[in-house]
């Protein structure tokens, strides 16, 4: 055990951590943007569209993320059409390939989470929206999706932490994020224990911060649900005392 090496490697590992967080943020934003319409389409679209989305979700949930990364990074470059397209300057970059793969991967899981959350929205709230004359898109925007997001938050928090850990696979396509940086230093110092223990500790701290932040958000969004129950208890106590 070499504590001095662990401290000495921290600046480089922190720099790699920032790249990991950039990958995570970009993937989550793009993945959520894809997941919302897919979740709605699985409930509202025609049968062929639902079948296509179901296949997409099954593929990305049923195959290893590492294989998906290799398919995007090494596979897309095999097609002349892609190499000659305007997208090639982006697709040939490892960072873009990693973000694209992570986004497609998390979109599949998030779409399933949101679909279940939408189905869990109380029917009375949806009927009330229709009774107010809301169109389908407006009901989704004003009533259904905000409620579904609150219901989905605990499961989505697990997905966020899973994607944080998944960013370590970006090192397999030459991206020097946290794990890639640790690997590089290990190759130079031959001290895998110190480097990977430090990297694991950094992942653990970030996961704890993300979990705490999402739990705080969940608690904040659920305040209006706790208030009526609290009022009812207070009213019941007052009635007993009277």
- Helix share, percent: over 70%
CATH architecture annotation name: Orthogonal Bundle
Number of strand elements: 0
CATH class: Mainly Alpha
Report mean pLDDT, rounded to a whole number: 90
State the assembly state of the protein chains: single chain
Spans of 5+ residues with little confidence (pLDDT < 50)?
229-242
As for the number of domains, it is 1
- The N- and C-terminal alpha carbons lie at a distance of 69 Å
From N to C, what is the helix and strand string? HHHHHHHHHHH
* Fourth CATH level, the homologous superfamily: MetI-like
Number of helices: 11
Question: What does this molecule look like?
Answer:
The chain has 242 residues and is mainly α. It has one domain (3-241): MetI-like (MetI-like fold), CATH 1.10.3720. It is built from 11 helices and no strands. Helix 1 packs antiparallel against helix 9 (178-189), helix 1 crosses helix 10 and helix 7 (123-131) runs antiparallel to helix 8. Residues 229-242 have low confidence and may be disordered.
């Amino acid at each position: 055990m070499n504590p001095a090496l662990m401290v000495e490697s921290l600046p480089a590992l922190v720099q790699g951590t920032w790249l990991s967080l950039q990958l995570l943020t970009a993937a989550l934003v793009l993945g959520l943007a894809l997941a919302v319409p897919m979740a709605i389409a699985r409930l509202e679209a025609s049968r062929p569209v639902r079948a296509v989305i179901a296949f997409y979700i099954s593929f990305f949930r049923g195959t290893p993320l590492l294989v998906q990364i290799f398919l995007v990074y090494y596979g897309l470059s095999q097609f002349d059409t892609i190499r000659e397209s305007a997208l090639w300057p982006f697709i040939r970059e490892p960072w873009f390939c990693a973000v694209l793969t992570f986004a497609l991967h998390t979109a599949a899981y998030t779409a399933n989470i949101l679909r279940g959350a939408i189905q869990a929205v109380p029917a009375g709230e949806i009927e009330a929206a229709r009774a107010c004359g809301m169109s389908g898109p407006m009901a989704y925007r004003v009533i259904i999706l905000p409620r579904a997001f609150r219901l989905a938050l605990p499961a989505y928090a697990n997905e966020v932490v899973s994607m944080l850990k998944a960013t370590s696979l970006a090192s397999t396509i030459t991206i020097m994020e946290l794990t890639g940086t640790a690997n590089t230093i290990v190759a130079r110092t031959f001290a895998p224990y110190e480097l990977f223990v430090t990297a694991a500790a950094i992942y653990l701290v970030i996961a704890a911060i993300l979990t705490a932040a999402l739990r705080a958000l969940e608690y904040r969004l659920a305040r209006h649900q706790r208030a009526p129950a609290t009022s009812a208890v207070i009213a019941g106590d007052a009635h007993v005392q009277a």
